[in-house]
Amino acid sequence: MSESSPNESEILLYRTEDGRIRVNVRFEGETAWLTQANIAQLYQTTPQNITMHITAVYEEGELSEEATCKKYLQVREEGGRRVQRSLKHYSLPVILAVGYRVRSAIGTAFRQWATARLREIIVARADASKDNLGLSWRLSTASSPRTSSSRSSRR
Questions:
Q1: β-bridge partners, 33
Q2: What is the pLDDT along the chain (155 residues), one digit of tens a residue?
Q3: Strands (E), the chain
Q4: Strand order of the sheet with strand 81-91?
Q5: What are φ and ψ of residue 2, in 5° steps?
Q6: How many other C-beta atoms can be found within 10 angstroms of the C-beta atom of residue 8?
Q7: 65, 1 in Cβ contact below 8 A?
Q8: Crossing angle between the packed helical segments 105-154 and 36-43, to the nearest 10 degrees
Q9: Spatial separation of the C-alpha atoms in residues 59 and 66, rounded to whole Å
Q10: Please, are residues 22 and 92 in contact by the beta-carbon 8 Å criterion?
């Protein structure tokens, strides 16, 4: 788990279409990062529930904490003073894994959405694979008579 400063990344606001859920999403590298509190807000559940699921994801070996958890330094107002806190942020694979475990209306909607997207990807890849297999088959059948004739001429 490494620590990063705020100016090495970009923070965007995610908002649902109805505007009920608003979450600050930190983007760094090629992934999104959320705190445990942000994940709880996203899935409309308690931070304790999210902690339980994140712990299970790591304990079951589904994901590696070193690869998917990073501390970011954040400055906040607490009791009229500015305080710097180092908060754990979790990458997109953890956010998705937790989304499959959370039992809430938004968690169910997320699972339905994710399953539909995965199905689309699998079907698209299967179609592409069929096309590639057909091409390979045509290439191998087109070249096999030459191969067999050249073998027979050597005998």
A1: 26, 91
A2: 544 444 456 666 666 667 777 777 788 877 889 999 999 988 889 999 999 999 999 999 999 999 999 999 888 888 999 999 999 999 989 998 998 899 888 777 777 777 777 788 788 877 777 766 655 544 444 444 444 444 444 44
A3: 3-4, 10-15, 22-28, 31-35, 69-78, 81-91
A4: 3-4, 69-78, 81-91, 31-35, 22-28, 10-15
A5: -110, 170
A6: 10
A7: yes
A8: 100
A9: 13
A10: no
Residue with tokens 């590298």: 29
The DSSP call for residue 80 is T
Give the residue among 88, 86, 33 at the shortest CA–CA distance from 55: 88
Q: What is the pTM of this model?
A: 0.63
* Tokens encoding 75: 């400055």
The Cα 40–Cα 46 span in angstroms is 6
Give 60-64 contacts, CB < 8 A, sequence gap 24+.
Answer: 62/97, 63/93, 63/94, 63/97
